[in-house]
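I am writing to request your help with a piece of structural work I have in hand. The matter concerns a single protein, recorded as an amino acid sequence and a row of backbone structure tokens. Could you please explain, in whatever detail you think fit, how the structure tokens follow from the sequence? Thank you for your consideration; the sequence and its tokens are set out here:
>
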Amino acid sequence: MKPTNKIGARLWSSILMFGLFGQLAWVVENMYFNLFLYNTISGSPEAIAWMVACSAATATITTMLMGAFSDKLKKRKLFISVGYIFWGLSTLSFAFISIDNVQVLFPYADAVKVAIAVVIIMDCVMTFFGSTANDSAFNAWVTDSTNVENRGKVEGVLAILPLLALLVIFGGFDGFVQSDQWPLFFFILGGLITLGGVIGIFLIRESNVESSHQDYFKALIHGFRPSTVKENKNLYLYLAVMGLFGISTQIYMPFFIIYIQRYLGINSYAILLGAVLLGASVVSVLVGRGVNGKNKSRYFVPGLGIMFVGLLLLFLTRSPIWVGIAGFVMMSGNLILTAVVSAKVRDYTPLDKVGHFQGIRMIFFVLIPMLIGPFIGAQVIHNSATFYEDLGVLKPVPTPEIFLVSAILSLLVLIPLFFVFHREKEASK
């Protein structure tokens, strides 16, 4: 399948379905695993930060290895379909993790510590299959199947899928979480993701992958060579933008639902966040329609400014209505930046090494942000010294300072943006 300016119904169906099913899995992994660990096993912010960091490392290493491998085999469809099947099954396995079950298997061990370790290990297993299917194969397949002219439209849609996935989970499945029916929650969502992989066998049309003649192991280190960075300076500058932007986002994102539930006392957070995400999704689609061709750069500064204002409002506000407004503003800016940066990274990715560069992309999109951001957030939470008591155990509570720190650090993206804008301006003369 060759990329064309027109995106047909089958291609759109594949993009939407696998983009959405993948984001359902990532929502469970990025937000609900944190809530699951916090509510049922341990309230330690450090445990959450370590889980996020280990998962990020697994995702990055997996994407580098499997992305280059998919380049070599030129079989994106196989990696996507089979990967989604096992991704769903590993998500489903969380239905069996509990302190009681761990106590039965390891009667002489500290059940809480062992349970934390089991959750982190299984999170990494789930992430391995998810990164194989989604981060390496699906993302490379999207790049193979689109071009410079239509990627902005596609990225605008892909950027809202994490929010749409949240809406689906909030509307259809969050009730299981609220009533502590975690096993049923994991069974249903894991089953859906597995079903998506089965459908993919029949739906996905294999893309025409540019042949990679480079040795596999040389391909793995290709993106780290100084000569590669020098040849693709704009690509690496945009990756730096995403890395700094991601650090800012990960300061609050792993603790977001916990903050709303425990600090603000809003138990019906699904309704609040659902309204925020729906509004921000509309903004992303409308903006994404105009983010095409060579006009993408004009959206960076407005997107950053909108997100910055939203973060400050989240720091200052407490009432549900104002928190909803602040969340809408913040998330709208976040989605605009995500869509534009992602499209720019695809534009500058070498076509003969698309799969391999998904690994390099993951270093900046996932590894660096998730290794740094959550630990900054955890430190901010501990310094706030705010707790709540659960069955005689004091658990630290996220506070509004995480949004203020995120807003301040988000301004660092202006540094690489300055240099890449200068380079693009010089190149256009």
Observations:
- The chain has one domain: 9-428.
